[in-house]
């Protein structure tokens, strides 16, 4: 096993990935398996570097040499004058002079090569007057509205440009050129991969309370869902009125489970249809980009047509309401079985395909978070499919079933105004998510979290059965609201939706094309990763304006249920807790990724979600 060269805490010079520049860094740890050093730059950025990309500080000290005392031309003319004054020097002297001449040529050749390399560095990093600061996460100005800097950093390939210019101006031999090509090919391999995610190392920081917390959540989450559904069935759904536990045999129905499986595989068939465009996701740790077919909205249209056909042929859709608890149990059992399958198959997955958040080595924690990042069966991406299809579209179908059940139970010719508002608001939310399906590829669920019990249960059970809680509540507890109140609630939902959609669109458009003329008025802080942090528009108002819009909409969904009980407000309370926790995870991740640039962004935008409050 190769020995370790640099110790923890040692200050060395580390090469910035994708460049020829070295910066002062401190060694924080060493991975014996991957043979990589984790180093920390002065701006707080942490990267994993090879030993070949690290040098001691002493190697950068200025060395005194003859070339530093005089120019090559001055030394050359001096030697010429010396030879002209002594034409009768002995042969030994002439041999010494020839040797010195060869040394002089070598020095001159080296000087020209160093000059050309310096010229290359200047050319490559010319867009920023002080690019050393920018590559350390320190922009030359706090704010910019010139997108040329971001475009250059995204499109520039320093290793290719260095290679091209050196091939034109370098005087090295072919042997040196071959060695140089090996060096730069090694560099390209490093640059093609995200520096921070090059090797999937063990997860060091455990979330959700670690092993104990995740173990408790595996039981607490299903218990919460069943408790909420039992509460909604009661005449008095107050917190102090604990519902009686139903008989175990009443919770399971094989026919219901079969209907759930039919629904799941129907959505899988819609997912596999060759309709919709195919896009690439973000680069993985190996540099590879997975392909995704964007056809969620088409799947929604096909589902709507299928449900319409069932209603036309007099299928009783309120069957969902009558067996709602059994459907929830079936979904929970299926999500548990899927989670077990996912963990077993992840044990054979290559190291680079494991999730950075779920590779702790602890069974319970990895089972909950998800051990494998993108589990696929052929081209069928299990996580991406479950993220938007069965649960999200199922949420709309459940709401429709509750609307029909309300009309049947209360003998209504039309649904109540409260039920119409809840169905309309949540239908808009789901259609928006499916219409902007491509945006989910940049979320933490896809890029960071593995696919385990947390996402499987959340997508298949929590979303359809908890998010539809308001509609389920209104069936057994009808609430009458006036038209002015309904109008005020509608305005509130529209405000929340406008903030949510415009903020997300602003962010996605900036990521996709920073040079878009429509975004010319936006200012940003450049970062060491080549991306920009927006400090104007919605993202200059609060750090997570999309979360603010989400919470406003969640409140609008609960208000039609009145104020008799707190149960229908569980969703907005839970959602606030969820987004505050997610915001904390984002903060930690962004601070590690962007370093000093993120700290400046936080100073520029001090409020996280709620302006002037939090």
Spans of 5+ residues with little confidence (pLDDT < 50)? 62-103, 110-144, 146-175, 177-200
Number of helices: 22
**How confident overall, as mean pLDDT?**
78
Widest sheet: strand ordering: 4-3-2-1-5
Q: Compute the gyration radius: what is it? A: 32 Å
Helix content: 55-70%
- How many strands appear in the DSSP assignment? 11
Largest sheet, strands/sense/barrel:
5 strands, antiparallel
SSE class: alpha+beta
Distance between the termini: 51 Å
Beta strand %: 5-15%
Q: Could you say how many structural domains there are in total?
A: 3
Per the principal axes of the C-alpha atoms, what is the gross shape? globular
Membrane topology: Multi-pass membrane protein
Family: Belongs to the ERG4/ERG24 family.
InterPro entries: ERG24_DHCR-like, Lamin-B_rcpt_of_tudor, Sterol_reductase_CS, Tudor
Pathway: Steroid biosynthesis; cholesterol biosynthesis
In short:
The protein has 614 residues and is an alpha+beta fold. 56% of the residues lie in helices and 7% in strands.
Can you describe what's shown?
The longest helix has 34 residues, at 91-124. Helix 8 (210-233) runs parallel beside helix 17 and helix 15 (417-435) packs parallel to helix 19 (483-512). This protein folds into three domains: 10-57, SH3 type barrels (Roll); 211-479, no CATH class; 481-613, no CATH class. The protein has helices at 66-69, 72-85, 91-124, 131-135, 148-155, 158-169, 174-192, 210-233, 254-272, 296-312, 319-322, 324-346, 363-369, 382-409, 417-435, 444-447, 453-466, 469-476, 483-512, 545-558, 570-594, 596-604, and strands at residues 11-15, 22-31, 36-41, 46-49, 54-55, 277-280, 291-294, 376-377, 380-381, 524-526, 532-534. By secondary structure, it is an alpha+beta fold. A hairpin with a 4-residue loop joins strand 3 (36-41) and strand 4 (46-49). The model is unreliable at 62-103, 110-144, 146-175 and 177-200 (pLDDT under 50). Residues 53-112 are annotated as: Disordered. Residues 101-112 have a biased composition (Basic and acidic residues). Belongs to the ERG4/ERG24 family.
